[in-house]
Write a structure and sequence with these properties.
The protein has helices spanning about 5-20, 65; strands at about 20, 40-45, 50-55, 70-75. The protein has one domain (about 5-75). The protein is elongated and about 40 Å long. Strands 1-4-3-2 form a four-stranded mixed β-sheet. The N and C termini lie far apart (about 45 Å). It has about 80 residues and is an alpha+beta fold. The longest helix has 16 residues, at about 5-20. It contains two helices and four strands; from the N terminus they run H-E-E-E-H-E. The chain binds zinc ion (ZN).
Amino acid sequence: MSLPVQMASVAQAKRTAENGVDFSPRHGARCPWCGRRTRIYATRPWDGPVRVRYHYCQTPSCPMASMRVTIKSVQVDR
Ligand SMILES: [Zn+2]
């Protein structure tokens, strides 16, 4: 029942999740689809000024959660 526009948005959110979202020490990483805080399942060591984490969305109604999309986050020590 999804409209093509909505499908494109889901694909776009998936792409954003793959490319990486910003990580905030205070707020964590937010889901590119629903905007809720995501749960960390893997944290990489610092690589220079950059640290990468992997997350899952936990919002039951969110397609990022139902498709088990891995959300990458990037923290930069500025
Ligand atoms: Zn979500």
